[in-house]
Specification:
The structure holds two protein chains of two kinds. Chain A folds into two domains: about 5-30 and about 80-285, 3-Layer(aba) Sandwich (Rossmann fold); about 35-75, no CATH class. Chain A is about 40% helix and about 25% strand. Chain A is built from nine helices and eleven strands. In chain A, the strands form three sheets. A six-stranded mixed beta sheet of chain A has the order 6-5-4-7-8-11, with helices on both faces. In chain A, strands 1-3-2 form a three-stranded antiparallel beta sheet, covered by helices on one side. A two-stranded antiparallel sheet of chain A has the order 9-10. Chain A starts with 5 loop residues before the first helix and ends in a 5-residue tail after the last helix. The model of chain A is unreliable at about 20-35 (pLDDT under 50). Chain B is α/β, with parallel strands linked by helices. Chain B has five domains: about 1-75, no CATH class; about 85-215 and about 575-590, Rossmann fold (3-Layer(aba) Sandwich), CATH 3.40.50; about 225-310, Sandwich (Immunoglobulin-like); about 315-480, Class I glutamine amidotransferase (GATase) domain (Rossmann fold); about 490-560, Immunoglobulin-like (Sandwich), CATH 2.60.40. Chain B is built from 14 helices and 33 strands. In chain B, the strands form eight sheets. Chain B has an eight-stranded mixed beta sheet, with helices on one face. A five-stranded mixed beta sheet of chain B has the order 6-5-4-7-8, with helices on both faces. In chain B, a hairpin with a 2-residue loop joins strand 11 (about 250-260) and strand 12 (about 260-270). The longest helix of chain B has 26 residues, at about 50-75. Chain B is elongated, with a radius of gyration of 40 Å. Classes of the chains: A alpha/beta, B alpha/beta. The interface of A and B includes residues 223, 228 and 245 of A. Strand 9 of chain A pairs parallel with strand 2 (about 30-35) of chain B, so a sheet runs across the interface. Chain B: Pfam families: BatA, VWA_2. Chain B: This is VWFA domain-containing protein. Chain B: InterPro entries: Aerotolerance_reg_N (IPR024163), VWF_A (IPR002035), vWFA_dom_sf (IPR036465).
Chain lengths: ~290, ~625
């Protein structure tokens, strides 16, 4: 089955309509950035520095307190949406592979953003940034993006989100919404990378995908565990007790992601890879309070 | 330690593939996972146990090798030398005589003996051998020497109760013969002690006696016989004996019936130890089953009923050809079973079963059939008639002949008897001093029997003697064959012979009182029957009889009455010093072959391996 068939496009259109009716202005478009400038909405004051535009001096404050303070206004700009798509080999695991849903989600979010006149960029990563779809604007770009997504392949060895984000944030680009679509199976930890995003003024959102067999493995006995990311093999004897322990660790990991997201107010959506992408998008909307 | 089958050690070669498989290790299943993050945490936590995990596999190999070694060793059937020298040879004698049917213990004495016997079998040690011998009716080896307990148990369970006498002495002799001169030979006797020579048998060193049952009072019929009366052709006499073999007075009722028709009922009161007997005289031309029942409830049923067979007296056709001899006519008319017909001339043939009496027959031939010739009037192909004998004196009588039963002719006057010279083989029953036959028989083969009395009835005093009607009655019985003969009631355990008519059927069956049939082997027109092991009426009949109607036509002559009729078996007051059977049951504790323990050990190892295997899967 094609990754982006006609059915997919029909669903995209539907999602676009839904987002215009109720989602608009709440998630992506018309979102206030922290850029200060020529807007009309007052933001705060700052001390006058030589060279500042006199027109922005708050004369009322000067008259009362004899202080030169500059009025600052929040500038409304179109939003920049950065999609960080995990293309490490672990995303190829599962039935269907997580990567298929990840690409559909990326396409869907990009379509919604483009439809709202926002700008999107796609960064594909594994242990490093492996590919980029440059910043684009206008719905017309969606087909190019889909072709780009279809052409992607899984690659790289161990996922290194921190290294990837470090490269990402050092790019000269405007801040914006950074949606990370990944399973978050990073040997060095996913939090380092997300922290970097936060610290550099991006607003991260996590879309975490996993497969049922990852949550609930069933193999028993003497087996060779093969890490499909780096190809390493480990001979172990899996017992029922090990399986119970594994499930507990997996659950702790998921809970850790929940706690982390909650602590820093990061948007977080988790799903298995076998759900339809549109359901997941709607779930995200509901989580944001856009749809009931 | 010795090995019975050392060749089984070859199975140890199976260790080679086990070791090869271990060394090669079967390729493990490869399972791809998206990340080993979590697995690393699990297995790195348990790192200290990895040595144990490696050893666990090695231990599995060792367990498997040990398992194989134990099984192979078990297959070789090892044994210690002392096992063969200490093995016992046991003869278990089970008394299944009539007295073992007593129900003073539950379910009965034989049942209790079997229960004890099963315990003794269970207590057999490895390499012990046992034989089972029954001691009722006739000693019989129920199971030959074997150590196979299931076979022994089956043989013991199959032992049936009998109504026969106890034959412990013969059974012990048989047991000693089977055991031979084995040092470890033992004879165990399970009996109620109702047998003769008990002290000598029980006191033997090589015999252990286990007494079954307890002292019990009993009343039983200890004798029942019936016979036809000697004087009355349709009369019969019943000899009955009832014994009180108990310690208290008993009142009961004796009922006698013939073919289910009441003949007599006698109320009895018997003192302790008293034996009551009486002869009943009854009349009936009909024969059949005579049953005596004791209306009394006790713990021993077989002697409360006894059986006898009364011979039938069927009507007999007699044709008399005589002129003015009232003596002869009246003696035949007086016979209750004779249907007399007077004739002027003798018929050419005499019907089967009928008798033709010719008085002063002058013809030169005899008709075919049974013929009694009195004072012959002429010569025939069987004899030549001579002059008269003036006054013959009887000097020789064949007293063993049924024709002369209860008859004495030595002082009877017989003037003018006819001299007669036999021309063929003749059996002379009475002979005069001059050597002339006076009473003789001719065997004419298929033409029938001929009996000749040369006496002149008008001149002598024979018709006036009591011997004359007896002589005629004997003659009629002789012509009738075995009909009317007395058939004695036999005791259980006895053997008998019964003549089988060769013309009626090719094969004959013996039917016991329970209705079970057994084919008879016939030799020389006779069949040997017995030892009879059940009281009741035994029947000999052609095997072609199938329906109940056919069965009713079985002649009394082919029925055999069999009774317990043994005071020794009926006397249940036999306290005996007995061995405590629990000593016998303890003898075989732990007595299992070595291979059994090896298999148990192997089984434990399999359990250990199973545990190790499960540890790998379940943790």
């Amino acid at each position: 089955m094609a990754l982006f068939g006609s059915d997919f496009l029909r669903k995209l259109e539907y999602l676009s309509l839904v987002s215009r009716r109720t989602f608009r202005g709440q998630l992506l478009a018309q979102r206030r950035t922290m850029q200060h400038g020529g807007g009309i909405e007052f933001s705060d004051h700052r001390d006058y520095a030589p060279g500042d535009d006199f027109r922005h001096l708050d004369w009322n404050v000067f008259a009362r307190h004899d202080e030169l303070l500059l009025k600052r206004f929040q500038q409304e700009e179109d939003l920049h949406v950065y999609l960080l798509l995990d293309a490490s080999k672990s995303m190829g695991f599962g039935n269907p592979p997580k990567f298929d849903l990840a690409r559909r989600l990326a396409a869907a979010l990009a379509y919604i953003a483009l439809a709202d006149l926002d700008r999107i960029a796609l960064t594909v990563f594994a242990d490093t940034i492996v590919d980029d779809f440059p910043l684009a604007r206008g719905k017309a770009r969606i087909l190019t993006l889909m072709a780009f997504l279809e052409g992607l392949e899984l690659r790289g060895r161990d996922t290194d989100l921190r290294g990837v984000v470090r490269s990402f944030v050092h790019r000269s680009q405007r801040r914006g919404l950074a949606i990370v679509i990944s399973d978050l199976f990073d040997p060095k930890g996913y939090a380092g990378g997300i922290d970097l995003l936060r610290h550099h003024g991006y607003e991260p959102h996590l879309l975490q995908l996993h497969d049922h067999t990852e949550a609930n493995p069933t193999m028993l006995g003497d087996v060779e565990l093969e890490d499909i990311e780096n190809g390493s093999v480990r001979k172990v004897t899996v017992t029922e007790a090990n399986l119970r322990h594994y499930r507990q660790l997996f659950e702790d990991f998921q809970k850790g992601v929940d706690d982390y997201s909650h602590r820093y107010g990061i948007g977080h959506t988790r799903s298995t890879a076998d759900v339809p992408f549109d359901d997941l998008i709607l779930r995200m909307m509901r989580a944001q309070g856009a749809v009931r | 330690m010795n090995l019975t089958s050392p060749s089984a050690l070859g199975w140890l070669a199976l260790a080679l593939p086990i070791v090869i498989l271990y060394v090669l290790k079967i390729r493990m299943r490869r399972v791809p996972v998206s990340t080993v993050l979590f697995w690393q945490q699990i297995f790195d936590e348990h790192q200290p146990r990895s040595l144990w995990q490696k050893l666990r596999h090695l231990l599995s190999l060792l367990v498997q090798l040990a398992f194989l070694a134990l099984l192979v060793l078990a297959l070789t059937k090892p044994y210690f030398p002392w096992e063969s020298t200490a093995a016992r040879r046991v003869a278990l004698i089970v008394d299944n005589s009539a007295s073992m049917n007593a129900t003073d213990v539950a379910p009965d004495r034989l049942g209790q003996a079997k229960t004890i016997g099963q315990g003794i079998i269970d207590a057999l040690r490895h390499r012990d051998e046992m034989t089972i011998i029954t001691a009722g009716t006739a000693p019989r080896v129920a199971c030959g020497l074997t150590g196979h307990q299931r076979t022994l148990r089956g043989a013991l369970a199959d032992i049936e109760a009998t109504d026969g006498p106890t034959r412990v002495a013969e059974a012990v002799t048989l047991a000693r013969r089977l055991i031979g001169d084995r040092d470890q030979g033992e004879i165990i006797l399970l009996s109620d002690g109702c047998f003769e020579d008990d002290e000598e048998i029980i006191g033997a060193e090589d015999l252990q006696f286990v007494s079954i049952g307890k002292a019990t009072d009993n009343v039983g019929i200890t004798q029942l016989q019936v016979r036809r009366s000697l004087g009355d052709p349709i009369g019969y006499e019943i000899l009955t004996q009832v014994s009180n073999l108990g310690e208290s007075e008993v009142s009961c009722r004796l009922e006698i019936d013939l073919n289910e028709e009441i003949v007599d009922v006698v109320p009895l009161t018997l003192a302790p130890g008293e034996t009551w007997s009486r002869v009943f005289e009854k009349t009936s031309a009909l024969g059949g089953r005579l049953v005596a029942r004791l209306n009394h409830t006790d713990r021993f049923a077989p002697d409360n009923q006894a059986y006898a067979v009364l011979p039938d007296r069927p009507p007999q056709e007699v044709f008399l050809v005589a002129k003015d001899n009232l003596f002869l006519q009246k003696v035949l008319e007086a016979h209750p079973v004779v249907r007399l017909s007077l004739a002027e001339r003798p018929p050419e043939t005499v019907p089967p079963g009928a008798v033709l009496v010719l008085h002063r027959h002058a013809g030169n031939t005899l008709p075919t059939g049974n013929v009694l010739v009195i004072e012959p009037g002429g010569s025939t192909p069987l004899w030549t008639l001579g002059e008269t004998l003036s006054n013959p004196i009887v000097v020789k009588e064949e007293r063993s002949s049924p024709l002369l039963r209860h008859v004495r002719l030595n002082n009877v006057l017989m003037p003018e008897a006819r001299r007669l010279e036999p021309l063929t083989d003749a059996d002379v029953l009475v002979e005069s001093v001059s050597g002339d036959p006076l009473y003789l028989t001719f065997d004419r083969g298929d033409e029938g029997k001929a009996l000749v009395l040369t006496v002149n009835l008008d001149k002598g005093d024979l018709p006036l003697r009591t011997a004359f009607p007896i002589l005629v009655t004997n003659a009629l019985h002789w012509f009738a064959g075995d009909q009317g003969e007395l058939r004695e009631s036999l005791t259980t355990g006895s053997l008998t012979e019964i003549p089988i008519p060769s013309t009626e059927a090719a094969t004959w069956n013996l039917v016991d009182p329970r209705g079970e049939e057994l084919a008879l082997s016939i030799a020389d027109g006779k069949a040997t029957i017995g030892p009879l092991d059940h009281a009741g009426i035994w029947t000999v009949r052609p095997s072609s009889i199938e329906s109940a109607e056919d069965e009713k036509r079985v002649e009394p002559a082919r029925m055999i009455a069999c009774n317990l009729a043994s005071k020794r078996e009926s006397d249940l007051r036999v306290p005996r010093a007995s061995l405590d059977e629990s000593a016998l049951l303890r003898a075989g504790w732990g007595g299992r072959p070595l291979w059994f323990y090896l298999v148990v050990l192997a089984w434990l190892l399999v359990t250990a391996e199973w545990w190790l295997y499960q540890r790998r899967w379940i943790g």
